[in-house]
Design a protein that fits this description.
By secondary structure, this protein is mainly alpha-helical. It has a single domain, classed as Four Helix Bundle (Hemerythrin (Met), subunit A) (Up-down Bundle), CATH 1.20.120. Helices cover 58% and strands 0% of the residues. It contains six helices and no strands. 20% of the residues are buried. The mean pLDDT is 93.
Length: 154
């Protein structure tokens, strides 16, 4: 059955490992980035690849917590949780960040399998937006930051 939740789940999967209609998927973009490159920040960029990956994980965790019915979870915009500034620059930290993002991907797809079309238009508990808006927002957010990572990778 091709329901709205099934279509969104496909978007989540395609954004991760393709195929994407617009270009490269996130997994391919992140492939072969050295840990040294992950921390390099050109003068004209506000963030490095590592910071983008951690930022994406932060908002994926936000969505995951609400999908798990943890309706008290919050992230303050521009906080240290949202945009990490204090971290260890090491290969291990980079590998952990990549692992966290991949784990989030698996958990998101699994959690969303239990979601229903009827619930899509409901408001997220305690929020002023629907599940539909939040889930689509996450896909758009990931694509936006994937493009920034792709530019930094070059």
């Amino acid at each position: 059955m091709n329901t709205e939740t099934t279509r969104i789940q496909k978007l989540l999967k395609r954004n991760w490992d393709g195929p994407m209609w617009h270009g490269t998927n996130l997994q391919e973009i992140l492939k072969d980035i050295s840990w040294e490159k992950a921390y390099h920040k050109p003068a004209n960029f506000s963030h490095n690849i590592y910071e983008y990956v951690k930022h994406m994980s932060c908002w994926r965790k936000f969505v995951l917590e609400y999908l798990k019915e943890n309706n008290t979870y919050s992230v303050e915009i521009n906080s240290e949780t949202d945009w990490i500034t204090k971290y260890e620059i090491s290969e291990l930290s980079w590998l952990q960040a990549l692992n966290e993002l991949e784990t989030n991907q698996i958990e998101l797809v699994n959690a969303f399998e239990k979601f229903t079309d009827e619930k899509m238009e409901e408001l997220v508990p305690g929020k002023k937006f629907s599940w539909y808006v939040m889930i689509h927002g996450l896909v758009h957010h990931d694509i936006y930051h994937s493009a920034q990572i792709a530019v930094l990778k070059k």
